[in-house]
Amino acid sequence: MLRKNQLNIFYVYTAQFVALFIRGNCLEKQPCNAYLSQSTRGIRSLLRKHGVRFSMPLCNAEVEQVTDDDLMEFSKIQTLNLGQTLHIDALSEVDNTTESLLSFTGNKSVHGLYDVLLNYKSFLNSLSATDVPVLYSPAPFQNGCLHIPEVICREMRKADTGLASSIGLDEEPGSAFAPPPGNMCYSMEIKDVVIPPWVASGICAAMSSDTDHFDLTIGTEPSSMGLNAAFTSIGASGQSKAPSESSPEGCEA
């Protein structure tokens, strides 16, 4: 669906990381991109073993480039048991942090990541512990199902009126005990394991169409923090750039 332009985004959610797949937009045949919110030495080694190219754009540490000759020489030293050999990954300190985010550009690299997640999940603890991977998509897909989050609505008196907050007030509007309409406020809490961004956007759009002002607080899923760091980095660098006149309307880099 992603490659046939029937879908522009979907997530693979695990307790260890979140994989984000994005279809190239605006121009026809623009390649797909993918991001792994955080990674470990084992994941990076597995990807390199299968020839999947990636970059670490948020990593401040110097990325060590290990060639096949280096690995063969190291393997021979281990085989001959010439003393105690120890290979230290220079990036081990950034494992499972936002700096370990992996970026995949181009259809070949994106398909390689998809292939590894699909066929080598026994090597990934976060995937091997589940029956099937959890996918989040804004459009229905084969073998998918709709999911309804828990929604809790509350009616409360404002704290600045000197009255205690209450839930489920049932006084008649004309009664002496009913508070003035201006002293009431309302809250809605949406709870789920993961709330995709298109759900949050839909809620904001619905609220904006019916009210002039509302406050929104969102709790970020810890394993997806790297995606937010990347978005913040891209957004900050792109604010100073004026939109191109030749770009189609609504096109974003």
Quick overview:
By secondary structure, this protein is α+β, with helices and mostly antiparallel strands.
Helicity, as a percent range: 25-40%
Average of per-residue pLDDT values: 76
Strand line-up in the sheet with most strands: 4-3-2-1-5
**What is the terminal-to-terminal distance?**
22 Å
Instruction: Quote the beta fraction.
Output: 5-15%
Q: What is the H-and-E element order?
A: EEEHHEHHEEEHH
Provide an overview of this structure:
The protein has 253 residues and is of the alpha+beta class. Among the domains are: 9-73 and 92-136, no CATH class; 147-158 and 184-208, no CATH class. It contains six helices and seven strands, in the order βββααβααβββαα. It has helices spanning 41-49, 68-80, 107-119, 125-128, 197-208, 225-238, and strands at 9-13, 18-22, 33-36, 102-105, 134-136, 150-157, 184-191. The strands form two sheets. The protein has a five-stranded antiparallel beta sheet with strand order 4-3-2-1-5, covered by helices on one side. Strands 6-7 form a two-stranded antiparallel sheet. β1 and β2 form a beta hairpin. The longest helix is centred in the C-terminal third of the chain and has 14 residues, at 225-238. The chain is elongated and about 80 Å long. The protein starts with 8 loop residues before the first strand and ends in a 15-residue tail after the last helix. Residues 162-171, 173-177 and 240-253 have low confidence and may be disordered.
